[in-house]
């Protein structure tokens, strides 16, 4: 607004009292993206050429996939005869990655993993950076009570 006042040759007495000066970067108008023009239509001849190229490429892809699939069927049949199993058994392994042969594991809880790691460290005698120093001086007796030990360690 301060800029507005200078550009319009107005003074602050003509403006309402509630108007506050603003920062230029906040009051500047936003830049608009230029409008995108619709691309020109593709000529019919060029569309036919693109379609022919697409169909040829798709035919090559289909041939390659068909060749791979027939090889896979032959390999499953061969393995079935070799290991006295049905070809379907090997097809399931090929396409499902042997998912039914692997046992399911539950997701590990991060808190439990952290606690078990820290318990392992303490049990190995490595100590933990999270223990207070006076814990090193306490020792347990066979009765379960804690006694203070003068020697650190």
Name the structural class: mainly alpha
Shape: flat
Number of strands: 2
N→C terminal distance:
72 Å
Oligomer: single chain
Mean pLDDT metric: 75
List the helices and strands and how they pair.
Elements: H1 2-7, H2 24-27, H3 44-83, H4 87-96, H5 110-123, E1 138-140, E2 146-148
Descriptive key words:
48% helix; flat; 153 residues; two-stranded antiparallel sheet; mainly alpha; 2 strands; 5 helices
Protein described:
The structure is a single chain. The protein is mainly alpha-helical. Among the domains are: 1-30, no CATH class; 63-103, no CATH class. The protein is 48% helix and 4% strand. The chain has a two-stranded antiparallel ribbon with strand order 1-2. Strand 1 (138-140) and strand 2 form a beta hairpin.
Task: Summarize the structure in short.
The protein has 153 residues and is mainly alpha-helical. It is built from five helices and two strands; from the N terminus they run H-H-H-H-H-E-E.
